[in-house]
Amino acid sequence: MVLNIRQALVTSAVLAAALGLVATTSISPSWSDEALSLKGKRIGVAVVGTQHFWDREAFNGALDQVKALGGEPVPVDGGRDNQVHADNHDILLANKVDAVISILGDAAVEPKFKALKDAGIPVFTVDHLSPYSINNTTSDNYYMGTTIGRYMADALGGKGKVAVFNAFEGALRICAIRTQMWKYVLQDYPGIKIVQPELAEAFANAPEDARKKTLDLLTQYPKGTLDAIHVGCWDQPAIGVVQALQETGRTEIKVTALDAGPDTLEIMAEKDSPFVANVAQQPRKIGATSAMNVARYFAGQKLMPQTFVDVVPVKGPEEAKKVYEQLGYGKLH
Predict the structure, then answer these.
(1) Is it the case that residue 11 has pLDDT exceeding 70?
(2) 220: helix, coil or strand?
(3) In whole numbers, what is the pLDDT of the chain averaged over residues?
């Protein structure tokens, strides 16, 4: 019975996505969205950092949408320091903004959110669940995790040994969801074994860090003893993983990850790339949607606790080329 429930859960999500139903999409704009405005409003937009493509795109999407709605964005950038990001909310509080959009961050932001709420300033989050947030806008991380689990299992034919980079499962809720749902799917594939210990990637210079750790891994697992490497929360480390596999002639090992920014889609699109599956997010749309939710809130519309923005599964080089174009990154030949 447990197996059937799991299969039904995954199958229903796939069917909904194929039919364009709401399981993986954002909320539909209401008839009154055309009249939404942030005119006269000053909206703080705080981001943990802009070094990573996803963070930068979400930040710019929120800024651009606030401007498009007639509001004045007040941007602050944490420089990828979680405490600086948290303290930047004090700046927004002192500036008496009308609302705050906060992108990512760890538990250090929670007392800052409380202070904003106590001052009557509504908080909207991106990829950060908080009891002080009116709404959190995010990708459907549950769907991302289950989808990449199925795609990897298919690529392996249901059996093999897999190494996983999993540094952030215990630190970030979105990473925990993605990795745990990936593992949940693999419970239905007893022929797939996750090798221990799991690897921990570094955020700073992630591709080079993962390249070196993959080279070390390959010395422990000679050809024929390792079948795949998965990056549990994002995909910048996968760039280094692929480099290590190519350097050592170990491209029989399959690589999977999550995010599918333009740089990793380019790698996937290469002929015979070991990078076989990914799930693309739309960070600019996520940031813009959060700004729209701020306007909906001020217009008196009811918001759900979370808004889920579409994700796009990617399998193989041809799909990578199509998604690259679909998401507006250009064309790959």
Answers:
(1) no
(2) helix
(3) 91
